[in-house]
Design goal:
The chain is built from twelve helices and 13 strands. The protein is of the alpha/beta class and 309 residues long. It folds into three domains: 82 residues, Arc Repressor Mutant, subunit A, CATH 1.10.10.10; 96 residues, D-Maltodextrin-Binding Protein, domain 2, CATH 3.40.190.10; 107 residues, 3-Layer(aba) Sandwich (D-Maltodextrin-Binding Protein, domain 2). Strands 3, 4, 5, 6, 10, 11 and 13 form a seven-stranded mixed beta sheet that branches. Strands 1-2 form a two-stranded antiparallel sheet. Strands 7-12 form a two-stranded parallel sheet. A hairpin with a 6-residue loop joins strand 1 and strand 2. The two termini are 43 Å apart.
Amino acid sequence: METPSVESLRLLVAVADLGSISAAARACSISQPSASSRLRHLERQLRLDLLDRRTRGAELTPEGAAVTEWARSVTAAMDALQTGAEALRFDHTVRIACSQTIAEYLMPAWLARLREHTDEPVHLTVGNSAAVVADVRGHVADLGFIEGPTVPDDLASRTVRTDRMVLVAAPGDRLARRRDDRPLTAAELAELPLVTREPGAGTRDALEAALRRAGFEPDPRSIALGTNAAVKIMVAAGGRAAVLSELAVAAELRDGRLVEIPTEGVDLHRRLRAVRRKDAAPREVVDTLLAVASGRAAGTPRARRGSPR
């Protein structure tokens, strides 16, 4: 059966509300003959008599009354769709999803720098790298920043900077008593019951990938926590070490709450990446943020809201 058009359903609702085909035609900005023809076509499509034309004006048949109530739901849904689509067209907000370390230690400065180039509004959400990838794939975010060692094939990526992860412990931990000329080996690191981030976090994934490249599996006795802050608090309490970004522990290393334990035989450097959908439409504000994050934004002209992007 051919699907009725929304315009025909809207006309039927108008007939029900206004009591005549001529009044409904005027309300829908069409001629009365066109309205009559459209309603007859709707009846043929549905194989139902919707109007009793023998009476003065036009009255709904019982079948017509039922169809009209369903038609109200359809036309209301279409109105909501059109209103929402219009709102999206005029919403210039760039939606950024950001993994935790980048969000805490890099993104604030990037956004401040972005304001020197554009006044487009920005909405930032924070999660682990797996959540960021899901948001970008699901069109929840226009741009994502991740810390993990891999990027899915269906996303485009760009390295914005490199990062070094470091092994840290409390000052009184037995690891802190090792001499600087006795760095912890990859094998020893793999055997440590660490405090780590949760599964899906880029810091955890990067550490596990580094150990596997060195030929080792991480100790399964590790305790997983959901934030960098929680990991640092547990490490500072003593008894367990952690591998975190040097960005995340810089303040604690400076004031002595944590100490860095030298390592060897495992490369703890990683790349911090921006990711976006390959079919994403170009946006000037996104390109500007990428330039800021990569340190290449000097001299970019300021873009005003509503200008072509």
